[in-house]
Amino acid sequence: MDIKKKIGSFLPPNFYSNEMIITKKSLNENQLKYTYQKQLISDLDYKHKEWSKFVDG
Fold first, then answer.
1. What is the tens place of the pLDDT at every residue in 42-57?
2. From residue 27, how far is each of 5, 6, 15, 19, 48 by CA, in Å?
3. How far apart are CA 50 and CA 57, in angstroms?
4. Is 23 helix (H, G, I), strand (E, B) or coil?
5. Does residue 9 sit in helix, strand or coil?
6. pLDDT per residue over 22-38, tens digit each?
7. b/e string for 17-48 if b means 16 or more Cβ within 10 A?
8. Closest CA to 33 of 44, 41, 45
9. Rounded to whole angstroms, how far apart are CA atoms 27 and 31?
10. Count of CA atoms in the C-beta half-sphere (13 A) of 11
11. Which position among 1, 25, 28, 38 has the lowest Cβ density within 10 Å, counted as fewest Cβ atoms?
12. d(Cα 52, Cα 46) in Å, to the nearest integer?
């Protein structure tokens, strides 16, 4: 009986912090910013590769 009581009272770890609250809107905005910045870096990397062809050629 004592074992079942311990197993039943087990609490899984919290995925979210109880001290920090982030709204869904804020989370979505940050995700959009991250995606945009990632695309800019990818574009810049591509441009550098293209420019290096002209410099080396």
1. 888 888 888 888 886 5
2. 38, 37, 15, 16, 32
3. 11
4. coil
5. coil
6. 788 888 999 999 999 99
7. eeeeeeeeeeeeeeeeeeeeeeeeeeeeeeee
8. 41
9. 6
10. 3
11. 1
12. 10
Rounded (10°) CA dihedral 19, 33, 35, 46: -140
Query: Tokens 């800019």, residue?
Result: 40
- 43's tokens: 């574009």
Helices (H), the chain: 2-8, 24-56
pLDDT at 17: 65
DSSP H or E segment with residue 20 = none
